[in-house]
Amino acid sequence: MTKVEGYLRRTFANHNIRLVGRPKKTDSAEVYIGEEFVGVLSVDDEDGDRSFNFSMAILDTDLEDE
Q1: Residue 65 confidence (pLDDT)
Q2: Which run of H or E residues covers position 41?
Q3: Dihedral angle, C-alpha 51, 54, 55, 60, nearest 10 °
């Protein structure tokens, strides 16, 4: 997960991004920017090709300040 965390930090130019392991789960981590939870990162090992999926929900209330 350290490599993926570094990738996300470089890609989004934000060193406050951090991955936190989920209790009782070995195939996913929570994604935070600072103290704010922003999404979930999941590992996909299907067909022997490893990939990582980042899922982030944007709520209506998050857009009210726009």
Answers
A1: 67
A2: strand 36-44
A3: -150
